[in-house]
Write a structure and sequence with these properties.
It is built from 14 helices and eleven strands. With 327 residues, the protein is α/β, with parallel strands linked by helices. The strands form four sheets. It has a five-stranded parallel sheet with strand order 2-5-8-1-9. Helix 2 packs across helix 11, helix 9 crosses helix 11 and helix 12 packs antiparallel against helix 14. The longest helix has 17 residues.
């Protein structure tokens, strides 16, 4: 708890709230299939809670794809998957117009983007032109083809996985697309105990993605999202959010700081963190927790800083330590 910020008094920190119930059930159901990776599961649920999109980065084989598929089952959403390849074209995702000899007219055949939950596996193996095909759908939840606009489902969500950029055959995502992702979730290796659990589950000879899980009702997600929007924000904490984002634009290690879109994302995710803890008000600790997944993919470090071994998370930690907490 921040000593520099006093909590509101009274009965505002209540238990058994919709967001807490959503996280409890999500951790339980996904935990039956995914061994460990608690931080990845929590941040994936935060993404859905905020109505955003997420980028998962990690080496192959750490359950990124399995987690996303299981999350779609838990939320009972229509699910489609696209495998990124170097020869993929935009039409492979968005769809294309096909001429019918019978009617002498073009008919639009919808691509996999017309779903509720889209997994774009190994997105950084797609060429830049195909990566850019997702920009409009991620930001505006619509697709424009041949001058006609097609609306996407209100629950449309993109979860994209990528391998680290030093892997062969990868293309770096453009800044405009990175900024569309609400969170960048870093997925590491499991602990020794967690990896033993993985081996034991495989010895059971049961396909993990076929194990039954109990999905939530749509109204449960809607109630949790409504609770997030109701989180109270004191002016001093709002100023703290603004200070964090604006400091990234003048920090000596950063060549390009966070955008205003990043500020709104940081505020939204911080409110979701507060709701997850059962509070109706925002604390600076919520902002600090949300800063890492919200900002790590939106900052461009100076080349000399990267050569010294710094990564965005370390820079964000230094930046947060230099900003006074609200009083």
């Amino acid at each position: 708890m921040n000593e520099a910020f006093s909590e509101p008094t009274g009965n505002e920190a209540l238990n058994d709230r919709p967001t807490q119930a959503l996280f409890a059930r999500g951790r339980r159901e996904l935990g039956r299939i995914i061994a460990g990776q608690a931080e990845m599961i929590d941040q994936a649920i935060l993404t859905l809670l905020c109505g955003g999109h997420a980028l998962l980065e990690g080496v192959p084989g750490v359950a990124k794809t399995l987690t996303v598929k299981t999350l779609a089952r838990f939320l009972a959403l229509d699910f489609r998957r696209v495998q990124g390849t170097p020869d993929m074209m935009p039409a492979d995702i968005l769809g294309t117009s096909v001429f019918s000899l019978k009617t002498s007219e073009f008919t639009f055949h919808r691509g996999p983007v017309f779903t509720q939950f889209l997994l774009t596996d190994e997105i950084n193996r797609m060429p830049p032109r195909t990566q850019a095909a997702l920009l409009e759908s991620m930001e505006e939840r619509q697709v424009t083809m041949d001058g006609e606009t097609h609306a996407l489902d209100p629950y449309f969500t993109v979860f994209a996985t990528q391998n680290p950029l030093e892997f062969e055959g990868t293309y770096p995502l453009p800044e405009a697309q990175l900024d569309r992702f609400l969170l960048k979730i870093r997925v590491g290796y499991p602990s020794a105990e967690e990896e033993r659990t993985i081996l034991e589950r495989h010895l059971a000879a049961t396909a993990l993605d076929q194990l039954p899980i109990e999905p939530i009702a749509p109204e449960d997600l809607a109630a949790a999202r409504s609770e997030v929007r109701s989180i109270r924000i004191e002016p001093a904490v709002l100023d703290y959010v603004l200070a964090v984002v604006r400091r990234t634009r003048e920090w000596p290690s950063i060549a390009r700081g966070a955008s205003p879109r990043a500020a709104t994302a940081l505020l939204l995710v911080a409110r979701a963190c507060a709701a997850r803890e059962g509070r109706t008000y925002l604390l600076p600790d919520d902002v600090k927790e949300a800063a890492f997944p919200c900002l790590r993919h939106r900052l461009i470090l100076k080349p000399e800083v990267e050569l010294e071994g710094f990564d965005p998370d370390r820079v964000i930690a230094d930046l947060l330590a230099a900003i006074p907490l609200p009083r």
